[in-house]
Recover the amino acids of this structure.
């Protein structure tokens, strides 16, 4: 696919690029090192809060209506059931260190944004893109690990479809005083141990084809996962709260 993005969307303020710009340079490809998560599941640190341990979805609900999550659980992972919608944790939390693992479907179907698409939404609002970008070009700000519609990852460190991959994230949510943003959200992301973003300041919540703006919200929120109709799997999801991190 030669033109997977857009040339009619607005310019992202402070940049030379349109939202999902076709012309924005592709992230360089980096082959990640050997996975410690490929066969061996990383065990969470002792102070981690477990959000999904591979056995059940009792801690997860439908984002749309709060009913029990409709995704399936088998063999230690959860898998999107297309059409059941986004799911989110009952747990709500703020600044954190987050770990999760995901795998794109082994059977390659679709291209660009149509291949292995899902997403990890911090506070239910801010997406780290999940996509199969192994030999699958798409618009830069929609690449695997992109802060969707805002920041392409520094590199493309994707493993092959079907292989387990890891996100390690440091998240500091935005702060508001009334309607004013006093501190934008700040995020650091590693994919398979390779740095994609470092202390990147988000411009607002994730949006499609438009420039985003902050709207005030609480300092905690759920973690949500996207149903984009692809059979993406997740496992080993936990976080460590960073309470007091910004006062230290
Ligand atoms: Mg997505």
């Amino acid at each position: 696919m030669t033109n997977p993005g857009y040339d009619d969307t607005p310019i992202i303020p402070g940049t030379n690029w349109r939202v999902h710009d076709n012309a924005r340079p592709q992230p360089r490809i980096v082959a990640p090192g050997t996975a410690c998560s490929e066969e061996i599941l990383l065990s969470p640190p002792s102070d981690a809060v477990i959000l999904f341990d591979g056995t059940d979805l009792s801690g997860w609900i439908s984002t749309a209506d709060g009913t029990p999550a409709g995704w399936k659980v088998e063999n230690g992972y959860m898998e999107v059931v297309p059409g059941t919608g986004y799911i989110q944790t009952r747990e709500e939390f703020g600044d954190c260190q987050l770990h999760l693992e995901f795998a794109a479907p082994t059977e390659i179907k679709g291209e660009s944004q149509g291949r292995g698409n899902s997403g990890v939404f911090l506070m239910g609002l801010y997406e780290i893109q999940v996509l199969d970008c192994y030999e699958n070009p798409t618009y830069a700000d929609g690449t695997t690990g992109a802060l969707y519609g805002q920041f392409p990852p520094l590199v493309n460190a994707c493993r092959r479809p079907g292989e387990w991959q890891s996100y390690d994230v440091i998240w500091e949510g935005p702060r508001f005083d009334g309607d004013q943003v006093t501190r934008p959200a700040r995020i650091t992301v590693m994919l398979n141990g390779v740095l994609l973003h470092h202390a990147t300041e988000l411009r607002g919540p994730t949006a499609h084809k438009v420039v985003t703006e902050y709207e005030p919200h609480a300092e905690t929120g759920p973690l949500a996962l996207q149903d984009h109709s692809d059979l993406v799997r997740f496992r080993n999801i936990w976080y460590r709260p960073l309470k007091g991190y910004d006062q230290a």
In short: Residues 177 and 216 are 8 Å apart (CA to CA). The two ends are 48 Å apart (CA to CA). The chain has one domain: 28-241. The domain at 28-241 is CATH 2.60.120.560 (Jelly Rolls).
